[in-house]
Design a protein that fits this description.
Arc Repressor Mutant, subunit A; 2 domains; elongated
């Protein structure tokens, strides 16, 4: 199995059933956002926003630059519109401080 197949499977594993159903409908609609909006009974801008959020989630889960699972989860929550960027920054800073404190404790115990 190639590395790209392994990476592709990772991001897919993180998507919710609702996201996978959206992707399936998108493909079956040949990528037509207008047709997708009609199928869901929602406006084109709403479909566009949903697609943009899904794209961001996929990029985050597939990212090699962000190694922290905690940071990826936070950023996905932001991409889904569940939390604001201020909250992301606050929680990331607290997490990094906590990791630094643990690292410092380990070094003083050695």
């Amino acid at each position: 199995m190639s590395e790209s197949q392994t990476n592709a499977r990772r991001w897919v594993d993180h998507l919710e059933d609702e996201d996978l159903a959206f992707i399936k409908r998108f493909v079956l609609a040949s990528g037509s956002l207008k047709e997708l909006a009609q199928a869901y009974g929602i406006s084109y801008p709403t479909v566009r926003l949903r697609l943009d959020r899904l794209i961001e989630k996929i990029k985050l889960w597939d990212s090699q630059e962000i190694s922290s699972e905690f940071e990826k989860v936070l950023r996905v929550q932001y991409a889904e519109g569940k939390i604001d960027m201020g909250t992301v920054k606050t929680l990331l800073a607290a997490h990094k401080r906590e990791l630094g404190d643990r690292h410092d404790q380990t070094n003083t115990e050695s």
